[in-house]
Write a structure and sequence with these properties.
Layout lengths: L8 E4 L3 H7 L6 E2 L6 H6 L3 E2 L4 E4 L3 E4 L5 H12 L2
Amino acid sequence: RFANLQKPIFICCYAPQLLMHAGVVKGRRICAMQTILNDLEDAGAVCLNQDVVNDNNLYISSRSPDLFPKFVDETLKVLRL
């Protein structure tokens, strides 16, 4: 239900699996850990090979904890809107 409220969702690493199982990744641009990309694509997500992906200020994703500084920067930009 939260995904349908048009509020931002911040996800990192393996967290996109939760959205995948909730059935809300179809057509969404996402990045995640390499090991789950095929599953996300099978669920209809558009997986990008980027450090951080901002999908219309709704789904903000990052591949790994090593990228937290970039992820936090993008998160703060979205929250300031």
